[in-house]
Amino acid sequence: MRQLGARLEFERVDRVRAVVDPVMPYHRGGMGTDAINGPVLAGLFDLVIGTVGWLTRPETRSATVSLAMTFLRPTRGARVVVEARLLRAGTNLTFAAAEVIDERGEITARCDGTVAVAHGKFESNDFYAAMRGRQT
């Protein structure tokens, strides 16, 4: 989040907002213009959709498994907001939708995402080491 220069805001567990203010030069470069680069917007979508998934059940582990993005027009300006909302929370999957809003208040991109939820948390890093093929 720090690398993206974003600030998270949430008052409810079913809504999350990431604000980038100000947009920096390293955020820009979409198609050689001053537009915010697509990978930056993708990272912000992942941030807000993943956070909505986690906030619905913070006692679990979660990971974004799918993002379907549509870029409607270039995102320009000195401030950008990405808002996500919970669509449905199931036993193992959470579904959310998000929108990018430029400084003029116009929607410039949309995203639907899925977050996988796993019950419980690991007490040690043994699981992560095993996933990488290293035993501890």
Layout: helices, strands, pairs:
Blueprint: E1 7-12, E2 15-20, H1 38-56, E3 61-71, E4 80-89, E5 93-101, E6 107-118, H2 126-131
Antiparallel strand pairs: 1-2, 2-4, 3-6, 4-5, 5-6
Provide an overview of this structure:
With 136 residues, the protein is of the alpha+beta class. The protein has one domain: Hotdog Thioesterase (Thiol Ester Dehydrase, Chain A), CATH 3.10.129. Helices cover 18% and strands 40% of the residues. It has helices at residues 38-56, 126-131; strands spanning 7-12, 15-20, 61-71, 80-89, 93-101, 107-118. Strands 1-2-4-5-6-3 form a 6-stranded antiparallel beta sheet, covered by helices on one side. A hairpin with a 3-residue loop joins strand 4 and strand 5. The protein is elongated. The two termini are 30 Å apart.
Percent helix: 10-25%
β-strand amount: 35-45%
Largest sheet data = 6 strands, antiparallel
Instruction: State the total count of DSSP E strands.
Output: 6
Strand order of the largest sheet: 1-2-4-5-6-3
Any idea what the CATH superfamily is called?
A: Hotdog Thioesterase
Order of helices and strands: EEHEEEEH
Mean pLDDT: 88
Tally of DSSP helical segments: 2
